[in-house]
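Could someone model nicotinamide-adenine-dinucleotide with this protein?
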Amino acid sequence: MAVRNILGIGAGYVGGPTMAVMAARCPDLRIEVADIDEERVRAWQSGRPPIYEPGLDEVLRRGLGRNLSFTSDLPAAIRRAEMIFVSVNTPTKVFGQGMGMAADLQHWEATARTIRAHAPGPRIVVEKSTVPVRTAEAMDQILNEEGTRRFEVLSNPEFLAEGTAIRDLEEPDRVLIGSAETPAGQAAAAELVDIYARWVPRERILTMNVWSSELSKLAANAFLAQRVSSINAIAELCEISGARIGEVARAVGMDRRIGPRFLEAGVGFGGSCFRKDVLNLVYLCRHSGLTEAADYWHSVVRFNDHHQARFAAGIVSQMFNTLVGKRIALFGFAFKADTGDTRDSPAIRIARALVEERARLVITDPQALENARRELADLADRIEFTDDPCEAARGAHAIVVVTGWRQFAELDYGRILATMERPAFLFDGRNLLDAERMFSLGFNVVPIGSPPRLHFE
Ligand SMILES: NC(=O)c1ccc[n+]([C@@H]2O[C@H](COP(=O)([O-])OP(=O)(O)OC[C@H]3O[C@@H](n4cnc5c(N)ncnc54)[C@H](O)[C@@H]3O)[C@@H](O)[C@H]2O)c1
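Reply:
Sure, complex below.
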């Protein structure tokens, strides 16, 4: 019998948009999303989502009141559902064995136990969270503990990128569906294929063994993070050799074997996934005795840490080795443009390093100020926040571009410079602004991956 009632557990950056797009694309299905966080549930249900994501409001509004609803009553929602997607958080463990590396699966396991307690009959459970390879096996054992096989566990990792989540969900590069290689596992996979096939071309839906599916997600994020570290490593060499990273990246990216995307040098990767997933991979390798493979992937994260520390240190050294009492405007706090998410944002380390040097920090961001305040709550008396970048720069000795928001590229920097202290510095951590133009306006410009343009020797 075809599935009609779907439940998504976890209404975060993945669960909310994923289920909203599914509801929009499958008007004949009834889709519910459940979360233990009642405030989040209320926000989603009111049509004002708790996260910023371009295009999300519209998709959400279309579904609400039609075939999409949000609830914090998990038992009732589980009783109604035939297929359950689980998109709960799987952060890096901060305690015990594997601390700082392994994935913390406590929310996943708690969810599996809640499902087992309340599901009245056979169910398909879809693992959407990013998890270590072989997690589905553990979940299968927890769900089917009593000997009777009631649950089929599928792996269906999510590849959306924040900032483009709606487009990524509507037109995914691929959808992975991993299942047990048994008739029941394959039947469950076929049910999920039928759902995606309503809007995703069939050739982009890949069915595979469950372990391949789980590992493909970690591998994809590790490859992406590795590209960021690779281009940033080349950027460092550019800064001291006279080469320009934009020119090098273009030349490298035109090789069809490499491709042009994800070759922008910057302040290093952030966000809730890359560090977590690469470290998870490192842990898996190390745990399996694959020391060299673990070291290889670990270097991707270690380089990123170094690169961010180097960026902050460069600000101190360019500004005559002291920041004490100097006002510095941080342009952007989100981990990238078009999101309000600040989890593991490079801005956190940079802000902390500058405050440590006793700079007076002013942070501006069009979407992330609330999260920024929360991230830096312990420094509340030493940081100002404003949603007006011109106000942030007034009286400042330096602007530091940390997030590549388009709005920052459209400001009148001539007028901004007139309100700043001299010499005025511009540290462009995203190469967002035209360095030559900024230099000719009067800024001392320090881009990523090309030599600084300074008005003094
Ligand atoms: N954020 C991304 O860009 C992204 C992309 C692809 C995959 N992922 C993966 O998807 C998963 C979710 O990520 P996210 O960014 O949406 O996390 P999130 O923290 O934004 O959302 C997780 C939600 O799960 C809820 N939750 C936790 N335990 C629960 C329980 N027992 N019952 C019901 N709800 C519970 C939390 O309250 C929270 O609202 C992670 O595994 C992540 O690695 C994230």
